[in-house]
Here is the input.
Amino acid sequence: MLNASKIKNNLRPSLFGGLMSLAGTVVAAGDIEFNTDVLDLSDRTNIDLSQFARSGFILPGTYSMVVQVNSQPIAEQSVAFYPPDDDPKGSQACLSPDLVGQLGLKESGAAPLTWWKGGECLDIQGLPGMEVSGDLASSTLNINLPQAYLEYSAINWDPPSRWDDGVPGLLVDYNVTAQSNHEKNDRVRHNVSGNGTLGANAGAWRLRADWQGRVDKDRERASSQPKLEWSRYYAYRAIPELKARLVVGEDYLYSDLFDSFRFTGAALNSDESQLPPNLRGYAPEVVGVAKTNAKVIISQQGRVLYETLVAAGPFRIQDLHDAVSGRLDVRVEEQDGSVHTFQLDTAGVPYLTRPGHIRYKLASGRPSNLQYGADGNFFGSGEFSWGISNGWSLYGGGITDNNYHAVSGGVGRDLLAFGAISLDATQSHARVWNETLSGKSYRLQYSKNFEQYDSQITFAGYRFSEKNYLSMSEYLDARHYGRNGERAGLNEYGEYNGSWKPIGGSKALYTATINKQFRDLGATVYASYNKQTYWSRPATHRWNLSASRYFNVGSVKNMNMSLNMFRTQEYNYKDNGMALTVSLPLGPSGTLSLDANRIAGKNNFSTRYSDRLDERNSYQLSASDNAASGYLSHIGDQADIDLSVSTQEGNKSSIGMSARGGGTLTPYGAALHRTNSTGGTRLMVDTAGVPDVPVRGYGTPTRSNAFGKAVISDIGSYQRTAASIDLERLPNTVEATQSVTQLTLTEGAIGYRSLDVISGAKAMAVLRLPDGSSPPFGATVKNTKQQDTGIVNDGGNVYLSGIQAGEQMTVSWAGAERCVLTLPVVLPADGLTDALQLGCRMVAADQSLPEPADLTGKHIHTENTSS
Here is the structure.
């Protein structure tokens, strides 16, 4: 049996290739003369090759094209072609002011620009060395520019002139977890928790409202009241000219010099995410071990930042935002009912700035508390970093309100082969409860990537504070609870957790994170250490160590042994843990693991088997001497869903489920979709109303919904993003004439791109005009969406795609639409052996010609449709 898609793919390239082989001579004006004698045609006079008569010639008109600058695509957009003033028969691409603004020209190079066609089009002669050419076969406009004219760009980073603020829209993102625990004596405990974001986009502005909530229900004990609270209302936007981010509303102070606290007001911060990737900071990581299927909640000052279900065994969370700083609270809720918590202090790399540049952060407002609202006087803060030279940076800042003042200054040094280091000092003065306290704090930070040793000290720092030094957050606590008072320990939802914590008195803080790879041994080591000492209370500390190695035993390849160890001590709470895992690959994707771990003073031995059902579904089964559990993860088009079940000795059992997803609404349509980071940047792909089209972007492909819309979420802000149609998985009735698009979105944007997709049946057809003749060889056929659906061959033969029963198509030649054909209501069962014979009705300009015979719906049986 003949393959329809292969026939169609062979017809068009052979046609264009044959036309090129026909080119005999090129005359002075650039015209190509075709030798039609070599064509095997019955009528060599009925040929229209006007669109191929000039090398690279494109008929005047407007085309949708992907614009490439020095082989780097920037965006798909409409490009007009006009005849130049000195060549009425020619055609030249019109680079509009909007398109020129996307080229990334330096400001110094914008002054000499000249224009033609009344200022609508750029005169490329004004930029020596610039070349512009269009290619209709690939729908590409190629622009070559000397690098001296352009701003800095990288393979995956575009200059601000190419950033896209997206389209207006609404979004609703959620992350919900539900658990049910059953114990003997018919005791049942249920809890549901979640967090998410509601948002709206208008131009460059992003409006957001973050929510979080929790419901606990216990048959034997008084159930807690359902709690739903809005943790933040805020609006923000990017200011590319300043490489900054403006935030208005409820926010957290993100500072490289001072600790973080919540406030209501406004902040203008230099945004590292708007810098090239090699100039950005790093995001904190959270590492731990779960003895059962567990829920991990990461929060800061009561606001939930991250919540997820993890399978039994070691876990490592690496997708926190790089703007997160300060102390994080981590809570691990096991399915057996046990809970362990710890805190993690994060910090930035040494505060260095590019030579000649200034980074800054400004904020003003009133401190606020998630539970108590406004909690302090109006304050103002500011900080800066100035790149003095290639090696030195000077930085400093201050923060103040009526009764608190702090000023900081420091210097950073790039040690080149020896890394980077910074040193700063902060002086604080606070008046609280009729007492004046004054003290200093000193900080040392170091970072180094030892490439030759495959090692990286992500961060190493030390901070020492005098006894009477108070940070802003400690000052706010002292105002509320008293200088020597004690603060109630609160969980991540602001609820009393049964512990008491003294206020303030920080003495020394030690932090370090180290990575090391041993490539010859196939081993990797990761270690982190965090210790905080105080003047008037016990120290707290946590360290993690993980090491893994791949090795072979006889014919068994790629076995893995990993060791994870941690120790946590906070006030009167201690927790030590260790997990040793040996993994053995089984089958194409399965892994059998043997675990030995000690967590919360208990030893546990278990066996785990994990495997992937397909690219969307994976599972894990675990069994130990006193428990068994299962974990299933599903990556869906509309949501990610995780399911977990477990049973323990003593007639205990539990079941849990988490769902992460969202919905996005724009003027172009709406779609439900999966997402991990709520309120983040996303791209809506429109597949021309065609459903079930596989679209690739970030991670696992998704499919367009019933309205032909698909949303790719969790994409990087200010990073070049590509979306494409997975051609290998297209349904047989769908064809993509444009399968790839690229763009760079600002933070929180809802991008929109449309990909040209044709849906419908495919069949051979024979076209006839009213006088019985056929359209000329090379005529083009388009549907009502102006999509190319076929090119006429000899004798009116054409392979049509995108056939919809009863729809009309137009046939064009000599640069104009000439006739209209109506497709039959009943299509042939085999579009290759039963060719459609279609009459083509002339358009209004040619109504004088006779009407065609009624051939609609009739089939011609052909024995050899491939000839």
